[in-house]
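User: Fold this; tokens only.

Assistant: Input:
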Amino acid sequence: MRRDIILQFYMAYPYPYGYEEQNRRMQDLEYMQQLYPQEAKNILRKVIYHLDPIDYKGSFLYDEYPDQLQLYRVVASVLAELRKEAMDREEAWMPEKEMWLQDMIKLVLYQEVFKRRYKNNF
């Protein structure tokens, strides 16, 4: 290895590639969220609506291990809102659908929390 090579000043400092990569990943994630089925988009809108008031600096969302009880409360409030909307439209509400919706809400919620944590980490 030769040590007599002199580097130019601009070659000695790393280029901040991380910011461009972060923006590209966020754009990819937002594009994929646009491809969600209609039911998942509806759940995502409700999850965002319930997460916005609790998304602040120092929130439990940004703890190393977020509080599972608080996350469950968000899931329960979104599920109650969906149940109320179904009752208003006079749709049948079945326990199987509730279990499926609860799992779907959890998946969308955890992905949205991850997205917010990743976005605010940089």
